[in-house]
Design goal:
The complex is a heterodimer. By secondary structure, chain A is of the alpha+beta class. Chain A folds into 2 domains: about 190 residues, no CATH class; about 140 residues, no CATH class. Chain A is built from 13 helices and 16 strands. Chain A is elongated, with a radius of gyration of 33 Å. The model of chain A has no long low-confidence stretch (mean pLDDT about 85). Chain B is of the alpha/beta class. Chain B has a single domain, classed as 3-Layer(aba) Sandwich (Rossmann fold), CATH 3.40.50. In chain B, the strands form 2 sheets. In chain B, strands 6-7-8-3-9-10 form a 6-stranded mixed sheet, sandwiched between helices. In chain B, strands 2-1-4-5 form a 4-stranded antiparallel sheet, covered by helices on one side. In chain B, a hairpin with a 6-residue loop joins strand 1 and strand 2. Chain B starts with a strand and ends in a 15-residue tail after the last strand. At the A-B interface, helix 1, helix 9 and helix 13 of A face helix 2, strand 6 and helix 3 of B.
């Protein structure tokens, strides 16, 4: 029998048992539905992460730290040796820690590493308060603005480069500071105060908050930032200003302390950093001189790791559904062989080969797999496409992001795999059909 | 020429040994109409199965047109059956949920006949049995006699050299059975095929040019030598 004749005959015998076929296929459809949605969601998550990375990181830069714990590594259950060079700080849980920082001399060493184009310190200045005339005072944190960052804006624009005492203000401060609207705030000034530290011989700790003189500066609002959809908790209200303005504020607030000109992390721009090889080379050289360097790729891998774990769980559930459907197919195929015993006998009597009869039933199983896979993937695609805009707004992914991204090739491969699984499930029944004794089969009533 | 040489067929072992056929020797010449007559359990069906290669004898050999079936591999026997033989059964065995066209097509598909000739050959076969107008009708909508005519169309579509008919009128009333028999013998005359009919119907057997009587797995009597005309005078008696 020609292959096409077998495929057609297999399909025809399924059509003669429509309800049974459809019900068996539905079991696979459930698996296909779950797997299609998982794949789409993981595509969405992947592209979401990539978007975030692209908006927040410069791929030609390395983030360099002196203390591994900053990058989420290191051993936090080991006692940390005290160093007189840096101040201590308090972690989220209230524990006192000491984070090793990078000093100006460290930065000089890193600048001397071949392949390093420039170094940009990540400066975070603790403000005493920020306010406007006749408004309440608020606490705040001012950070140096990374030049490549493209935050979502409510209004205004970010000058390139951002210089002097210009500030990017999170939208939450707009009504707090008494602006009628974000638009009205652009071009206006806010008052920023930083406190001079109490200089003592002893290293400064969090407990030594003694009221000191304040320095007050005026900053012009150049843009209003949308609430970021993803950010480290506590950083949503960061204000951003130019590198030099941030440095000035930080210098004032740390002058004379152990934290003066000491940075938790710095950004190192690699010459010709679009070449991944250069990034790795510089990364290793920085490690060799005793610092820790993380590339954007590493950050991305760290973020996607969590996604892959979640994804693995959902895929496992989908596979369980597929596994269950295998038994359904085996059962259905056995029934089909039983019902068609006489037909098999006739075909054998007419000289159909064992191999061809086996194949006829495997094609039948393949059709069930194709039907189930197509129904499941089709439903997932239809439902996903219809609900995607709504879900995406509900989970607030931000503009340009989509929770579900369907890739036709991926769905095609998935269906192909399901068809293969179905064929394997049809193996035993098809063997039974092939081995039937034609005389016995023809005698069957 | 179909020759059976010293055919013995046994089932089981030891005490439960059952001999279905015992030392059968018979030769059916080409283009003969041969009837195998016997009561149920006489071994007539087993003999037909062995002749057609569906079943293998315990001893002895089947020689069809100088080819010994025992020397052929299963694959070659399958090929042999798909190109040179066909079957008609008491219970028709037509696929009820398929159309007449699809039913008659089956042997052509099995024998891998090229697509171009298929439809023409199916129409020819259906025309030969007078079902050309039912070509796209579902087999389930046919009457018993029409179903057997459909089975005959399926049996002749492949231009076989031998047709085995197992009680072809067993499920039909006498009038319809008579039509089927007339059709079978007319076709035999026009296409020159060897027709082997297994039956317990003496009247049907009487119309064949060769009659092989069987009892308890042995041939008791052979009438005719196959050289008689197929339009045997005895048929006029009916």
């Amino acid at each position: 029998m020609f292959l096409s004749d077998q495929i057609r005959r297999a399909g025809r015998s399924l059509r003669s048992a429509k309800a049974r076929t459809l019900l068996t296929a539905m079991a696979i459809a459930v698996g296909a539905f779950a797997l299609t949605l998982t794949l789409a969601a993981s595509n969405g998550a992947q592209s979401f992460v990539n978007n975030i990375i692209a908006k927040n990181f410069d791929p030609t830069e390395l983030i360099v730290v002196a203390d591994q714990t900053v990058l989420g590594g290191g051993n936090t259950s080991k006692p940390v040796e005290y160093s007189g060079n840096f101040g201590t700080s308090v972690s989220n849980s209230g524990a006192v820690t000491q984070v090793k920082r990078l000093t100006d001399s460290d930065i000089e060493k890193i600048k001397a590493v071949p392949g390093v184009e420039s170094v940009r310190e990540d400066i975070t200045a603790n403000l005493q308060y920020l306010t406007r005339p006749e408004q309440k005072k608020f606490v705040g944190t001012m950070q140096s603005f990374p030049p490549f960052q493209q935050p979502d804006l409510v209004t205004g624009s970010i000058p390139k480069p951002l210089i002097g005492k210009q500030v990017l203000l999170p939208e939450a401060y707009i009504s707090a500071l008494g602006f009628p609207s974000a638009e009205a705030a652009v071009g206006k000034t806010i008052t920023i105060a930083v406190q001079k530290p109490a200089v003592t011989d002893a290293p400064q700790t969090f407990a030594q908050a003694i009221v000191q003189d304040s320095i007050v500066q005026e900053f012009t609002i150049t843009a209003v930032l949308k609430k970021p959809t993803t950010s480290q908790p506590g950083t949503e209200l960061y204000l951003f200003t130019s590198q030099e303005a941030a440095r000035e504020l930080n210098d004032i607030s740390t002058l004379g302390t152990a934290n003066y000109r000491a940075y938790t992390d710095i950004f190192v721009k690699v010459a010709d950093g679009n070449n991944a090889q250069n990034i790795t080379t510089v990364q290793n050289k920085i490690k060799d001189i005793g610092f820790y360097a993380q590339s954007v790729k590493d950050t991305q891998a760290f973020l996607t790791q969590i996604i892959s774990v979640l994804q693995g769980i959902v895929i496992a559930f989908g596979l369980i559904a597929v596994l269950a459907s295998i038994f359904g197919i085996v059962n259905t195929m056995y029934i089909s062989v039983l019902q068609r015993t006489r037909e098999i006998g006739l075909m054998k009597a007419l000289g159909m080969r064992k191999r061809d009869i086996g194949r006829l039933f495997r094609f039948e199983a393949a059709w069930i797999g194709l039907l189930g896979g197509t129904i499941g993937a089709g439903l997932a695609f239809g439902l996903g496409t219809a609900l995607n805009p709504w879900i995406t707004t509900k989970v607030n992914l931000g503009t340009g992001n989509s929770l579900l991204i369907f890739q036709p090739l991926q769905i095609g491969i998935l269906i192909l795999i399901l068809v293969t699984i179905s064929i394997l499930a049809g193996w035993l029944p098809s063997r039974k059909a092939a081995k039937l004794d034609p005389i016995e089969a023809l005698r069957a009533e | 020429m179909i020759e059976l040489k010293d055919i013995t067929k046994t089932y089981g072992k030891g005490d439960s040994l059952f001999t279905a056929l015992y030392k059968i020797n018979v030769a059916i010449p080409t283009t003969t109409t041969a009837a195998i007559i016997g009561k149920s359990g006489s071994g007539k069906s087993t003999m037909m199965h062995i002749m057609s290669g569906l079943d293998r004898p315990s001893e002895g050999d089947v020689i069809i047109n100088d080819k010994a079936l025992s020397e052929l591999k299963p694959k070659q026997i399958d090929k042999f059956r798909s190109t040179e033989m066909s079957f008609i059964f008491q219970a028709f065995f037509v696929e009820a949920n398929q159309t007449c066209y699809q039913n008659v097509m089956l042997p052509l598909e099995i024998a891998k006949v090229g697509r171009r000739n298929r439809r023409k050959r199916v129409i020819e076969a259906l025309t030969a049995v007078g079902l050309e107008e039912k070509i796209d009708t579902q087999a389930s909508k046919l009457s018993g006699g029409q179903k057997q005519r459909l089975a005959i169309a399926r049996a002749i579509v492949n231009n076989p050299k031998i047709i085995f008919a197992d009680e072809p009128t067993g499920n039909l009333d006498s009038t319809t059975g008579e039509i089927i028999i007339k059709l079978l013998f007319d076709l035999h005359k026009s296409i020159g095929v060897t027709l082997v009919i297994v039956t317990h119907d003496e009247e049907l057997a009487a119309r064949c040019s060769m009659r092989i009587y069987m009892k308890d797995g042995e041939i008791t009597r052979v009438e005719g030598n196959g050289k008689q005309s197929t339009t045997n005078k005895k048929t006029r008696r009916v």
